[in-house]
Amino acid sequence: MTRTMPDGRWAPIVRVAAVTVAFGMLGGSAVTGVAHGAPEPGFGACPEGSVTEGTGVRCAVVRVPKDYADPQGPTIELTVSKVAAEGQRRGVVFANPGGPGADALDFWSRPGVAFPADLATHYDRIAVQPRGLRWSTPLHCTERQAEGTKVALGNGDRDAIKKACDAALPGYLSTITTESNARDMDAVRAALGLSRIDFFGTSYGTYLGAVYASLFPDRIERMVLDSNVNPDWVWTEEFAQQQAAGKQRLDDLFGWIAEHDAEYHLGDTTLRVYRTWVELATQQGGGWYANLTPPPASVADLPGALPDPLSEIARDGFNGSVEQLGKVQNLVRALITGGASEQGPLLSATTVASYTRTYWPLFAGAMADAHADPTNVRRLRLISGATSGDPTGQLVFAAITCNENAIPDRPEMLGRAAATIASGGNAMDARADLVRAGMACGDWKPATTPVPITGDGMATPPLVLQSRHDALTEFEGGPAMARALRGALITVEGGDHGTFGRGNPALDPAVMTYLDTGEVTIGEAEQAPLPTS
Fold it and tell me: CB–CB of 502/530 below 8 Å?
């Protein structure tokens, strides 16, 4: 899943490398399933650049139907990674890191993770690279997929992009959905000769896990879902709700920096840090993206340069004409691909810092560098690149979210967005209304209906983890997912996106107990301690 943040771009919801964690366990036996008794694929070297060297990761290729509605038709290739247990094996665990559009092969071997020691000792760990991404029959929809180039299905002529996709591999684009990803995972399960699996999903991976459990409840033993997509908001409302959640997390970030003013010298109150941030963002071309209003700021005190065509709507009102909608659609495309904020490394780094407190000291130090010397943005650029990925990830993200978007467009929200920005109001509120207007997908029509989420038939109810101030998956996603799957919810304080595996002395043991026994021993936990180095 994704969000918009101060840089105006959609940021895929994916656990950043420095803090990615996952866990699970299973007992399994040989079955035939989709693989029809085919031998288990042999694991060998992984594609160059796909995994961290020296971590014992091995890879294999599994062929699956391109379209599960035509199981005897053309096939595609999925690359699967595996890290073998170092000691006596107790089970195998599948996981997905999020996105949609996040590379998965290195999920278990990235540096900086904080897995419980028993994970590496006793469990084989599996990750399936989702279809459409590099190393799994990638989407090829445009010639603009050069390294570092921003690519999205909403960028440019959608009809031309669709034609390019179909010319490369006819019919493939419409199969890029969460349901297809779930069926791919089940095909890998069968190819590996496993009757039941456990699953850990974070961010978009929670929705993938929920879809898998709804389709194949008898093939899940234990399931942990961390930082949850709201199954009732797929997808437009999910992204709109991110705006308020992101605003709260920025307030938290600015407040933490203010508490450490003796070290960073950026302001000794939340408002003073915010004003320093706005000054730097404006210097870097942030424009109206910098219009955020942490307490106790007043909207009357904020800058409010209004971008076209919103100035036209604010002046003349929303009329719903094709011309007006086209102009706003062009604006939203600019937001999706960075727009005027492309030259603002502070805004991109702020997005990354909102994911997890692990980045807060790094971000504060980088912001202090730029405050002392506006040309010194080296560390800001390093942070902003922490979640960058291959361009195919942007294509897959857009394909999934537009192919299965179930929330109707509300173009009348354009007028409210214009009024908010014209009055100097919170840019995140305005972006939420732009999202609800339906401009992100425009004339891209859904190719499928999302799978109804249900916990019927699961051997053990899932464990759902959700932090209160998560900036990427708004808190209500956790309770909503727990209700839909009839699972148990653990509420975690703070706002880290991804809560398990951070060395949390209350949460981590509780998750381990669930995985071992199916029992849930707590309902709440404090946030994990902030790393000191």
Answer: no
CA distance linking residue 310 with residue 317, whole number of Å: 9
Choose among 515, 333, 529, 345: nearest CA to 441: 333
Cα 109 from Cα 114, distance rounded (Å): 11
For 177, list phi and psi in degrees, rounded to 5.
-140, 165
Amino acid, res. 330: N
63, 77 contact by CB (below 8 A): yes
Phi, psi of 508, deg, nearest 5: -60, -45
Q: Judge contact between 453 and 179, C-beta under 8 A.
A: no
- Phi (first) and psi of residue 391, to 5 degrees: -55, -25
Residue positions counted in the chain: 533
Which residue type sits at 456? D
DSSP code at position 132 = B
C-alpha 65/C-alpha 74 separation (Å) is 6
What angle do the packed helices 413-422 and 427-436 form, to 10 degrees?
A: 170
Listing DSSP states for 169-206 in one string gives STT-GGG-SHHHHHHHHHHHHHHTT-S-EEEEEEEHHH
8 Å CB contact between 249 and 469: yes
d(CA 528, CA 207): 24
Sheet containing strand 2-4, edge to edge, reads 2-4, 10-14, 98-99
Q: Interhelix angle for 270-283 vs 360-372, to 10°?
A: 60
10 Å Cβ neighbour count for 308?
Answer: 11
Note down pLDDT in tens along the chain; length 533 residues. Answer: 544 443 333 444 444 333 322 222 222 222 333 434 456 788 999 999 999 999 999 999 999 999 999 999 999 999 999 999 899 888 889 999 999 999 999 998 887 778 888 878 888 899 999 999 999 999 988 655 444 444 444 444 556 667 788 888 899 999 999 999 999 999 999 999 999 999 999 999 999 999 999 999 999 999 999 999 999 999 999 999 998 888 889 989 999 999 999 999 999 999 899 889 988 988 887 655 666 665 554 444 444 455 666 667 766 776 767 666 666 655 554 444 443 434 479 988 998 999 899 999 999 999 999 999 999 999 999 998 887 778 888 889 989 998 999 999 898 888 887 777 666 677 788 888 888 988 778 778 899 999 999 999 999 999 999 999 999 999 999 999 999 999 999 999 999 999 988 889 999 989 988 988 999 999 999 999 987 65
Of the candidates 38, 123, 33, the residue with the CA atom closest to the CA atom of residue 87: 123
Question: Distance between CA atoms of 202 and 497, rounded to whole angstroms?
Answer: 8
Residue 352 burial by CB count (10 A; 0-12/13-18/19+): exposed, middle or buried?
Answer: buried
The helix (H) or strand (E) run that includes residue 467 is strand 463-467
Q: Is 435 helix (H, G, I), strand (E, B) or coil?
A: helix
The closest of 225, 226, 215 to 455, measured between CA atoms, is 215
Q: How far apart are CA 62 and CA 170, in angstroms?
A: 21
